[in-house]
Amino acid sequence: MRIARVMTRLNLGGPARQVLGSDPLLRARGHELRLFTGEPLEGEGDLVLEARALGLDVVRVPGLGRSVRPLADRRAGRFLAQALGAWQPDLVHTHASKAGCLGRRAALSLRRVPRLVHTFHGHVLEGYFPRAIELGLRAAERRMARRTDALVAVSEATGRDLERFGIAGRRPTRIIPPGMDLDALLEIPPLGEERTRGGAALRQRLGIGNETVLALMLGRLAEVKRPRLALEALAGTDAVRAGRLALVFAGDGPERAGLEAAASQMPADQPVCVHLLGAIADTHDLLSGCDLVIGASRTEGLPVALIEAGAAARPAVWSDVGGVAQILEDGATGKLLPAEPAELVPALSRALDAAVAEPAIGRALGLAARAHVAQRHGAARLADDLEQLYSELLASRPAEVA
């Protein structure tokens, strides 16, 4: 099969990490793949060089970006139409809203229209914009869905949302959970054992001793992730006042300046307990050095940070939104938190204190999370699911007359 993939940007987020896991495997199976992508936002990181090092054929699309810019969007659309027309893929698979709109429009403009697949890794159809804009976005997605051969959602919750908004239509949404290359993370020693050299070096660099529990918030510092709620929860713990708890943010984005300002207001008589590291592409040392991973998101598809945490045998504490519960079983592989801020903050404070007081429970949760994730979220499983979907779609295409 000749497969074109269109992504808005190849940043450090979940969609890009999935592509880096599945596409080298698809390529090794004899399929041709070409990845069309735009430029990431400042502070998001860029995995294009890593993708090319894995042998992926990556094409930069001029003008393609996350923000709405009519002139740049038109330029990106024209480029995609020309590039897809020249390459003649059998199938075009788009990811997220901007690439989904421009990529599918470009493919539909071709003389020979390829099969179209679009993945929702989450959505911005509710809770992001004023009501009028939300209704317009839903209408646009419904129109585009009618001309798309298969819609994919990364979680059952996202699939239900697509049905609720009338986007799924008569064809059922295919649920394909995230998958990625987990081999290096699965080798990280569990909690209670000696950390990797990189994990130990991280803690030494931050001035964090082995007696201190290090919580990690991994991902872009955007409002939807609500990182300030994590900071509020940290301030409400007994453990941080005793100098036994620290929090590290690994990511960048518009919330960073506010977090830095809030962190500077922590009581002067407490040890430094908040660290902002910026965007980091390789999460191996981060996960080895930390003791648990936390999330306070307002909405999610299915967060890849949870998969990475589980693979590293680190317990997770996360707001119960979107598809989080598909990975995090409360009390078995981690702790689910209420989604409403008024309840989430004190619940997260209690969970952080419990991580300090009961390390054996954290170790057990982390090991259970590792077993769960390793079985369900590897790159080979994702490649298998995609290959099966693509094959089904192409097998259903009527034979072309010579």
Overview of this protein structure:
This protein is an alpha/beta fold and 402 residues long. The protein has helices spanning 14-28, 48-53, 70-87, 97-108, 131-145, 156-164, 183-186, 197-206, 227-235, 238-241, 256-263, 284-289, 304-311, 324-327, 341-357, 359-376, 379-395; strands spanning 2-9, 32-38, 58-60, 91-95, 115-120, 150-153, 174-175, 213-218, 245-250, 274-276, 292-295, 316-319, 334-337. Strands 3-2-1-4-5-6-7 form a 7-stranded parallel β-sheet, sandwiched between helices. Helix 3 packs across helix 4, helix 9 (227-235) packs across helix 15 and helix 13 (304-311) packs across helix 16. The model has no long low-confidence stretch (mean pLDDT 91).
Q: Give the class from helix and strand content and strand pairing.
A: alpha/beta
Q: What gyration radius follows from the Cα positions, in whole Å?
A: 22 Å
Helical content band: 40-55%
Largest sheet: 7 strands, parallel
- Number of strand elements: 13
Note the gap between the termini.
Answer: 19 Å
**General form:** globular
The H/E string reads EHEHEHEHEHEHEHHEHHEHEHEHEHEHHH
Indicate the low-confidence ranges by residue numbers: none
**Proportion of beta-strand residues:** 15-25%
Question: Number of DSSP helices?
Answer: 17
Strand order of the largest sheet: 3-2-1-4-5-6-7
Q: Mean pLDDT, nearest integer?
A: 91
